[in-house]
Amino acid sequence: MPEIATPASTKAYDRLRALQREAGTLASVSRLLGWDQETYMPNGGAAARAEQQSLLAGLSHDRATDPRLGELIAECEADANLNAPGTSTAANLREMRRDYDKAIRLPRALVQELARAGSESQQVWKKARAESDFKQFEGSLTRMVGLARQKAECLGFSEGGELYDALLDKYEPGMTAHEVEAVFTPLEKRLSVLVSELLDSGRGPDDALTRAEVPADRQHAFGLMVIERCGFDLERGRLDTTTHPFCEGLAPGDTRLTTRYREERWTDAFFGTMHEMGHGLYEQGLPKLAGQYEDVPASHFGEPLGESISLGIHESQSRMWENFVGRSASFWQWLAPHAHAMLGSGLERHDADAICRAVNTVSRSYIRVEADEATYNLHVMLRFGIERALIRGDLSVRDLPGAWNERFEKMLGVPVPDDRRGCLQDVHWSFGLMGYFPTYTLGNLYCAQLWEMMNKAIPDIETQMARGEFGEILTWLRTNVHKHGKRYRAGELCERVTGEPLSAEPLLRHLEGKLKPMYGLA
Amino acid sequence: MPEIATPASTKAYDRLRALQREAGTLASVSRLLGWDQETYMPNGGAAARAEQQSLLAGLSHDRATDPRLGELIAECEADANLNAPGTSTAANLREMRRDYDKAIRLPRALVQELARAGSESQQVWKKARAESDFKQFEGSLTRMVGLARQKAECLGFSEGGELYDALLDKYEPGMTAHEVEAVFTPLEKRLSVLVSELLDSGRGPDDALTRAEVPADRQHAFGLMVIERCGFDLERGRLDTTTHPFCEGLAPGDTRLTTRYREERWTDAFFGTMHEMGHGLYEQGLPKLAGQYEDVPASHFGEPLGESISLGIHESQSRMWENFVGRSASFWQWLAPHAHAMLGSGLERHDADAICRAVNTVSRSYIRVEADEATYNLHVMLRFGIERALIRGDLSVRDLPGAWNERFEKMLGVPVPDDRRGCLQDVHWSFGLMGYFPTYTLGNLYCAQLWEMMNKAIPDIETQMARGEFGEILTWLRTNVHKHGKRYRAGELCERVTGEPLSAEPLLRHLEGKLKPMYGLA
């Protein structure tokens, strides 16, 4: 791809990039406000934080809708060199156009209101969740759903589609609710069958050893050791604790992971950390720093070429490190002795195979982020159904806990004990993030498909993992996914890299291939 | 002061306040960037942080110099009600005018350059300090001194004054280098005599017990207990660790203290924490939240009425809690049993009196922030002399270490072992903060004078401290200092509260009264 190394440029294009970089810098400040709110901000700072977020959202919106920006994009689009098919400049312009056209549809007041209300509502959610009391949160959520609908109406959607599409499109460009449904419906059926088969076998592993009491500081040291070994650069990132684990690609050279430690279940934080690290490796791999890749000499921070493709692709990275690496037998061959030494707490009585089996235990549980690989997507599908109904107006916020509990029991087979372990468990809706959840399952699908391809490219991948070597895996991801930024759309990248359109088969092959033998079914 | 409770208002004044609040919100975001840079930011984020700070500095400068702001101030100044002598509105307008007139003298490019260079230079300083290598820092410091001089030239100074005045005036409004010199010269003489008398007596306490090894987590828990007891609201603040302790009044309801733990000397962190808490109590006491005081119903965040008077007054608050409370015999009567229980490490073998004597040990030491009360001001005077010479051009940055070491030995009587314990110890100059140091000693003077007055107002203050009761002390400070914001200038407040202009006598009385008996001289 020499066109990345020697891109066409013009004065207008340079000015465009400079404007984008400034907007990117402003956005990076908002991300710091968000990170701090989730990690260190005292409760008393909440009102001021909402005011700060609202102010910055307004300033960002002014930049995103600046008529000068529109003029420069148009001027560059008219330049045949810049817009030559297949060039990086054309990809950048395509995405800048998309972002600009979306931004000018949103009124400034709505953008500010969403930022302020989201920041406030998140504080309300925190308390409601801690006290497992949905009533406290109902008003805030009603406001956020209303704002999300307003936003969707401004953004619009294609003919034959629905309001939800307008929201989904922000996170998974080009995808519609109908398309998601078409993938999810058969997947749900096959997963339900698989989960029943596994659990009815009565011969699965049990996860008793994951309940060894491990002090938080040991878990933290262990997590740091592993992410560093996997290639996460701690000079350019950190790991903190929070209520709801997340990764923030805060700024060039500054990627922050968070996790939460439960002393009575060390695997929660461990796999949470692996998951966020997968996101973090993607963020660190995006060409945001000059000279990061030989054939991408410039920093593309603030431009589409320096951004992730979609949340689905982002999630494919986190799930790969969490599950395809982190829950593999080879990985535990390397890691078990370290777990024995660093975590202790009786784990030293269990060998690699026992630990690997335990961390692959399938169960009907309440918390999405702690769910096993097989049931996880059922949790996501539940949320997709509910948020779609909320946006359609088929479900009112007041009826949310009831609807959640009913559908949950139907899908997962166990009753929900309380709202904390039910509809209050996720932070997303409190921020107004709707249309976001389906990208989790899309991510699992992209992940499995990329993983099969990577296994062909790195035939001794299992041996490498068993030695604790992850360099080739990371290089493959850097080369095939990370360094391209938003150059390709998700579906296009999938086809380019794997030669096939997105399909659920690789994920099902992975789950059946790993879990059935563990449950004595193969 | 009924004029605070029922202020005059007009449309123009309301708009002015709204603009100021927005500018205050933007400034609060910059403070978060600064706090994060000092506490949690990974090294790799430094370049992006400089870019963020520079962008925000530019945006803040645009607001501070907005011609609309100037017009609104002028319109309000012409309103006899708003500008009636002695009203809070007049005080607000007086200070807004001062800020505006200063801001419009500074070119935007210089403001941005100062922010960017300061952020970059601070990273260079960090490394140079860690490696005790001034050469690494020389280039950055040369740049910062140059920028500080440029800034001073833009701001200007009164006839008969000098360039340094322009910088000092930002931190201690109205004060000149000449006035500082007039106070410092005789003070230096009397302090030098006192220090020599004490140290020549050969009968002072020793500080061996401060070198008991105390784990950082115990020190942290102890510090938190004490600051909460003193009245610092941890729902509206926090305490973190950093290289150079500071307090950031980040935003309304969000005041952050930092400290640093040395396991081999628990008193460093403890008195550092008490010091920053003093700043923090002032920040929490400024009327930045609506309803904070019965007679100040509105939030004055972003306005002069919600800001501290000067750095000297700020420092008077930190030094009061650190030294006048924290190093008093009564305070240790209350705290010693807690120190025994919470810190352990052999401290339980020392009673309140022994601890109090140990923490009042006078010695010729290298580090300003760890210096005892008697020698502390000598450290400050050294810096005042050096930075004044740098700004005058009488001293070049290259010659700084030599000049520092020579003057230090002359003033403190011991040779400087290395730059880390010499001219690299403070963060201030790396940010371009020049004209700032003298406010530390001015703070000690204000503090002693306020303390004498408070002792008259609270006759049983010693009994209260001995019971660990600090409510009346804090209320006195809130009522007499905190709640007025910038309503009075420092000298005016001093005269209003104490009935006298600023004088060095109270500080000398305090030091001689406490230290001479401990050294067998009285």
Q: Describe the biggest sheet of chain A? A: 3 strands, mixed
Order of strands side by side in the largest beta sheet of chain A?
1-3-2
Name the poorly predicted regions of chain A: 1-6
**Largest binding interface between chains:** A-B, 37 and 37 residues
Mean pLDDT of chain A: 94
Order of helices and strands of chain A: HHHHHHHHHHEEEHHHHHHHHHHH
Strand content of chain A: under 5%
Protein described:
The structure is a homodimer. By secondary structure, the first copy, chain A, is mainly alpha-helical. Chain A has a domain at about 1-170. Chain A has helices at about 1-5, 10-40, 45-65, 65-75, 90-105, 110-130, 135-155, 165-170, 175-200, 215-230, 265-285, 310-325, 330-345, 350-360, 375-390, 400-410, 440-455, 460-465, 470-480, 490-500, 505-520; strands at about 235-240, 245-250, 255-260. A 3-stranded mixed sheet of chain A has the order 1-3-2, with helices on both faces. In chain A, helix 2 (about 10-40) crosses helix 4 (about 65-75), helix 7 packs across helix 8 (about 165-170) and helix 10 runs antiparallel to helix 13. The longest helix of chain A is centred in the first third of the chain and has 29 residues, at about 10-40. The first copy, chain A, is globular, with a radius of gyration of 23 Å. The interface between A and B is large, with 37 and 37 residues.
